[in-house]
Amino acid sequence: MLLTPAPSSPSSSLRHDGDLTTLLEQLIEQYFADYPLANPIQVRFGRYSRTRLGSIGLAGWRSLKHPRALAYPGRHLSQHDQAASQIVITGYYRHRSIPDRLILATLAHELVHYFHGFHSALPQKFLDPHRGNIVDQELYKVGFGQELRLAKSWQRLHLRQAMQQIDSEERRLKSHKPLKPLKSGLKSRPQSLSQAHPLARQLRRILLG
Fold first, then answer.
1. Per-residue pLDDT for 79 more than 90?
2. Are 120 and 129 in contact (CB under 8 A)?
3. Are the beta carbons of 122 and 35 closer than 8 angstroms?
4. Where is this region: Disordered (predicted)?
């Protein structure tokens, strides 16, 4: 079954971390509902990177109380004292010119690393996180294969151009950023009545003869 992406707000030109959390929750509930969660998961946008589209690591223990850390009522978290796993997505994916499908595929890829025990509290299943195409095999196993194929096709055909357009737009916005006005210590003198209105000047001439 294909995942239906969460509707995004058309009024916002950029995605936010909350959008990532919604997509991650959908992925877990629809494709990984039977997989164990051993510690909370955070997700956020990171810096603009063309080569590192997603990554997963362990955050500090304070991040357990972070509002973006996912915790599912009724699902067992075996080690509450463990650090949260943190998935970071390239900043390019903030832009809505990048389809949700690419974000879902990147999140799914990092989730597989989590469930394989890389940068999570789960036992590590493999020595190498990518050897033997184990990530894609897991995604096909859970039924994410068609979404993965569509995402890879779009990435191959369009992602480079989309990133170039985003870079151009960012440069344009920076070049048109208005300069802050210089602060002046001199206060402007208020205009006199004769300077303020032409009728006042005429009246002044009549009165003075």
1. no
2. no
3. no
4. 168-197
Q: Where along the chain do its domains lie?
A: 17-174
- What's the token pair of residue 186? 């001199």
pTM, 2 dp: 0.72
Strands 41-45 and 85-89: parallel
Q: Which segments of the chain does DSSP mark as H helices, in order?
A: 17-31, 100-115, 134-141, 145-154, 160-175, 193-196, 198-208
Grouping H, G, I as helix, E, B as strand and the rest as coil, residue 42 is: strand
For position 68, what pLDDT does the model report?
42
- The percentage of residues in the chain with a pLDDT greater than 90, rounded to a whole number, is 62
Helix (H) or strand (E) holding 119: none
Q: 21 near 45, Cβ under 8 Å? A: no
Q: How far apart are CA 41 and CA 83, in angstroms?
A: 9
**Are 67 and 84 contacting, i.e. CB atoms less than 8 angstroms apart?**
no
Structure-token pair, residue 180 = 């802050």
| Positive or negative: CA dihedral 44, 49, 50, 56 | negative
What is the per-residue pLDDT for 34? 95
**What size, in residues, is the chain?**
209
* 195 pLDDT higher than 60: no
In this predicted structure, the answer to whether residue 56 has a pLDDT above a threshold of 70 is yes
Which own/partner pairs from 11-17 qualify as long-range (CB within 8 Å, at least 24 positions apart)?
13/95, 13/96, 14/94, 14/95, 14/96, 15/45, 15/93, 15/94, 15/95, 15/96, 15/103, 16/45, 16/94, 17/43, 17/44, 17/45, 17/68
